[in-house]
Amino acid sequence: MTKKIYHVSTTPNLKELKPHVSTHGKPYVYGTTAVDFAMFFGSNNKHGDFDGIYGIDENGTPFFEEAYEGALKERFDGQTCYIYELDPTTFEEGKTSFEGEVVSEKPVKVIGCTKVDNVYDYLQEANKEGRVNLTEFKQDDPEYTAKIDAHIEERIERFNIRHGGLSRKPARDFCNKKFGHIMNKPRNQENTQDLGRSKTFF
């Protein structure tokens, strides 16, 4: 592969990334050709898809739509991360369903690193420059809140947040705090449209 490949981490001084089993059930090193999208994962205070709907739009621009008021600030403000450029040799496209995501089945050498002192500031600047599209929570927009509610309810059902065991308690506590109006609804037996990317949830 000849494109530049990036991986964002909150861990400093990485020299090599090794494959690990994640949501796809296979050991991969994950990377992306879209460095600004990778910044959405540069936080130790993230709550996965429960922070918002995020991905890359049809024009190739990373987007993040808040699922609750202040989600961007809560997730990214004060967070330090490292943008690692990786040796692209063993990366492959098309192994996952997400556009812009590439994987390697072999360990990958780091060939460059840039420190970002505050991810929130980085993303706000990228938003001003049009490199990303950040949308703050629209409490008074029924269409927006309905989309967010559908997104959150689908994740709650998929990951068994309401009734799961101790492993689901952190996510359950978070959802009770942020989305009590959804958590307290009778369980929805109907399929909900998947409106956003699901990579991890906590």
Q: Your description of this structure?
A:
By secondary structure, this protein is α+β, with helices and mostly antiparallel strands. It has six helices and ten strands. It has helices spanning 35-38, 71-76, 119-128, 142-158, 169-178, 180-183, and strands at residues 5-9, 16-17, 20-21, 27-32, 52-56, 62-66, 81-86, 101-104, 108-116, 133-135. The strands form three sheets. Strands 1-7-9-2 form a four-stranded antiparallel β-sheet, with no helix packed on it. A three-stranded antiparallel β-sheet has the order 3-4-8. The chain has a three-stranded mixed β-sheet with strand order 5-6-10, sandwiched between helices. A hairpin with a 5-residue loop joins strand 5 and strand 6.
